[in-house]
Predict the structure.
Amino acid sequence: MKGNAAKTWSLNGITITLACLTASCGGGPPDPESFSRPAALYLGQQPPGETPEPFAPGIVNTDAIELNGVVSPDGREFFFTRVIDGVFVMHRSLKGEAGSWSAPEPVYTYPDRAPGLAVDMAYSPDGSRLYFLGRYSEELGAEETNSDLFVIERQGDDSWSPASPLAAPVNRPDSQEWYPSVAADGSLYFASDRPGGLGEGDIWRAQRLADGSFGEPVNLGPPVNSEYHEGDTYVSPDESWLVVTSRRPGGIGGGDLYVSFRRDDGAWSEPRLLPPTINTELLDFCPMGTPDGRYLFFSRRTGDSWAEADAGDVFWVNTSVIEKVRS
């Protein structure tokens, strides 16, 4: 889309209209000059081509298990997750005025720096909020509660508020919610095993309302969702395509990345498996696009479960591979 172009479609009976400004829908981030120098933007790393590369070896990827790769809309902040003593801890690197990046440091999101799960981050379009998967309860302890979606609010340039869970109808007491992704209009895509789904996990969309709250989540339905497990999903800002992690038949490993494109009638196309350079016999998951639309971050992990995992890394690849799948 160009300029102020708008597009309307219907999702399971709900009419959605997206007015898209070029700067917020994959056409260009707030600082075009910065994004014209991608090596300086992404922790000084040389950008990849259509073959995935480990991201920032020795800085982000270490001997520990790492996952996620999330860049702020202004390009000054990079979040990822590192597993420390079995705990999933957010880490952050900041770009200084001189252009150098700080060493990654843990970010503790819960009140009084309490321990708890914090993983799978996604920015709001303006960078003022960071959504993530959390598991924390002051009364019960992190391991005794469902996973929910949390949010932290930016306070000043580099600090964040304590985390708070999203209200109903996004979070439910009888289900797990995980892996948020935010469209240009602020609407939230996420995975959940809530009632009404098609399989073990489905992708849902909650419209961002005028008062800042979210409407009742709507199941994307088939063919994105299936009787199998769909989970981690990244949706492009203009909602024209999404990358979903699925365990449906026909994949390569324990979980694979598929891309689905939105057709002119608003329906999603049959998900197509991304190339074998991206999908392997391991678990390939956690897709997240960059603000300039050029790159896709994803994660790769050993083992059939987290209890069995002994390695995990963050990768990135040029999004031109997605366009090749489209054609």
Summary: The chain has one domain: 6-326. The CA atoms of residues 74 and 295 lie 15 Å apart. The radius of gyration is 18 Å.
